[in-house]
Structure to design on (452 residues):
């Protein structure tokens, strides 16, 4: 029996080492896997390279990871926001490196990594500062910039429901980068609001097939000790 | 000189958006265009964080943290709307499926170059978001901006001095004094606000403008 479900967020992130490259899903706070990030903070890994659309909002999630000085570098499209004070402070103190990537190129480069492509030619950014020094090519009269895939050691993502094989469905606009990051990381860890029995997800509606997901943690059932209480219930549901 | 209010500017752009168009409205003033789209026409609003068929803000108390727009404000989804991931969302732009996007700008050149992501200030934290993808992706890029800066300088310029977002990508510029077309042969005037003369906008912009 294959069971990718984890007993706790702490267990799920326990092998993330110092210096790891970690993708974190979410657009602002929608889809941000707060509980997994908190477990990563508690776990203590440092010198992380983080890939996310933003660089943290408010005081939780990615912002907390930055505030705890665990992040060496951020790869993102839009760091500067009204509530990105932890990143702003770290950046201005030169404690954090920033690689700015146009949002569509970020998505395409992550997707390319997950799809096994060696590189992509993208029209976005051509002729701008963000393409300076990069190889370009004219194809059928249009100009393109050569961009390389973005891979990661781990992806931490948030989905609405998942099963023990790692199949996932998302909720509304919290989907954003989740399905792409799941493809691009060596180890994808999904926190789900509910772990359902196999067959509990409509196969026609599965957004991320389980092949892209290595670990699933139910957050709905996470107690004070971090134990995922719905895991056993989900397995029971399958038997019935 | 007679000028349109920001509300009137947004309404003016809305008049040029036809039924059935797939449209992305940028952050800031462009977002207000949605308030002026006619209720009897079906127009599809795209939000780059994964919504098509985006609706207005929810009633107070009905906000859903998983249902936000690109400006991270709470929104709704119309009946018939759809959710999708970021690769699909930006394929809609780059792939030429989006009909119109409406963006703000720091500067637009007479040839349609756009500068709207950075003023180049050395101490500023750079942020680009989806601006570069939108600029080169949509079939038509409309810029919505006041013609002049607060210091009175024209934002429709011979050549952009701020860092570029995209080259030769803007087709029209909607301002508080008139509507302009940009292109390979330079900028032209599509219409002027009542009481504004061609000579006045030539002086304000320093461009040899003619009526389109």
């Amino acid at each position: 029996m294959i069971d990718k479900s984890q007993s706790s967020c702490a267990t799920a992130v326990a092998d993330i080492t110092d210096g790891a490259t970690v993708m974190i899903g979410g657009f602002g706070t929608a889809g941000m896997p707060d509980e997994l990030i908190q477990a990563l903070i508690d776990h203590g890994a440092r010198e992380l390279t983080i890939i996310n659309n933003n660089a943290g909002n408010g005081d939780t999630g990615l912002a907390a990871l930055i505030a705890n000085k665990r992040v060496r570098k951020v790869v993102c499209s839009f760091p500067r926001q009204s509530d990105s004070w932890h990143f702003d402070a770290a950046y201005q103190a030169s404690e954090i490196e920033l690689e700015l990537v146009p949002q569509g190129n970020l998505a395409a480069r992550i997707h390319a990594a997950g799809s096994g492509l060696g590189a992509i030619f993208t029209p976005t950014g051509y002729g701008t500062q963000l393409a300076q020094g990069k190889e370009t090519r004219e194809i059928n009269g249009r100009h393109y910039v050569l961009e390389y895939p973005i891979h990661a050691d781990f992806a931490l993502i948030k989905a609405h429901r998942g099963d023990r094989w790692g199949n996932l469905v998302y909720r509304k606009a919290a989907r954003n980068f989740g399905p792409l990051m799941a493809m691009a990381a060596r180890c994808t860890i999904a926190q789900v609001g509910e772990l359902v029995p196999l067959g509990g997800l409509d196969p026609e509606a599965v957004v991320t097939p389980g092949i892209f997901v290595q670990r699933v943690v139910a957050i709905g059932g996470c107690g004070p000790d971090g134990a995922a209480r719905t895991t056993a219930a989900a397995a029971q549901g399958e038997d019935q | 000189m007679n000028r349109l209010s920001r509300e009137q500017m947004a309404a003016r752009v809305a008049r040029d958006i036809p039924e059935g168009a797939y449209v992305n409205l940028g952050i800031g003033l462009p977002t207000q265009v949605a308030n002026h789209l006619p209720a009897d026409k079906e127009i599809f609003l795209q939000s780059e964080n994964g919504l098509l068929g985006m609706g207005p803000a929810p009633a107070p108390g009905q906000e859903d943290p998983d249902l936000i727009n690109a400006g991270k404000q709470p929104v709704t989804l119309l009946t018939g709307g759809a959710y999708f991931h970021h690769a699909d969302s930006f394929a809609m732009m780059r792939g030429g499926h989006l009909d119109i996007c409406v963006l703000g700008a720091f500067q637009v050149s007479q040839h349609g170059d756009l500068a709207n992501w950075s003023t180049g200030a050395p101490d500023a934290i750079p942020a680009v978001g989806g601006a570069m993808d939108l600029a080169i992706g949509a079939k038509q890029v409309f810029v919505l901006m006041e013609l002049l800066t607060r210091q009175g300088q024209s934002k429709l310029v011979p050549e952009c001095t701020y860092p570029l977002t995209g080259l030769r990508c803007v087709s029209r510029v909607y301002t508080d004094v008139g509507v302009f077309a940009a292109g390979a042969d330079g900028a032209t005037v599509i219409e002027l606000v009542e009481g504004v003369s061609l000579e006045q906008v030539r002086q304000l912009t320093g461009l040899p403008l003619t009526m389109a």
